[in-house]
Amino acid sequence: QVQVVESGGGLVQPGGSLRLSCAASGFTWNYYAIGWFRQAPGKEREGVSCISSRDGSTYYADSVKGRFTISRDNAKNTVYLQMNSLKPEDTAVYYCATGIYCSASRSDFGSWGQGTQVTVSS
Question: Based on the number of CB atoms within 10 Å of its own CB, is 16 exposed (0-12), middle (13-18) or buried (19 or more)?
């Protein structure tokens, strides 16, 4: 079965940085797009970023463009989300998920991790 595990969350001050990791096993890594989503308290889960399995194309929500960078290390079956210039509104539980292709729709993604908490506060 597909297993996805996020890590790297924590508490940072505004303007700080974190790097999240998404490690996966149980499937052919190269076949899947990996998306990052986040869910803040009282809000719906929203797409943050995605990296394509086809050509490595990357996608970002407008709210994080220029601040977040997604990358993948196929040898380690790991996708990273480098988050810089963090803002309080970035506070959320961050999830990674596998999909056939990059999409902003949660329904296009199958296996999900348990999430990692990111808190941006003074």
Answer: middle
Residue 29 bridge partners (DSSP): none
Question: Any idea what the Cα angle at residue 64 is, between residues 97 and 24, rounded to 5°?
Answer: 20
pLDDT average, residue stretch 87-99: 96
- CB 116 within 8 Å of CB 8: yes
What is the rounded CA–CA span in Å between residue 60 and residue 49? 4
Is 114 buried (19+), middle (13-18) or exposed (0-12) by CB count in 10 A?
exposed
Tokens read off for 56: 């490595």
d(CA 122, CA 109): 34
Name the phi and psi angles at 19, rounded to 5. Answer: -120, 120
Tens digit of pLDDT for each residue in 3-40? 899 999 999 999 999 999 999 887 766 778 999 999 99
| pLDDT, tens digit, 9 for 90 and up, residues 56-77 | 899 999 999 999 999 998 788 8
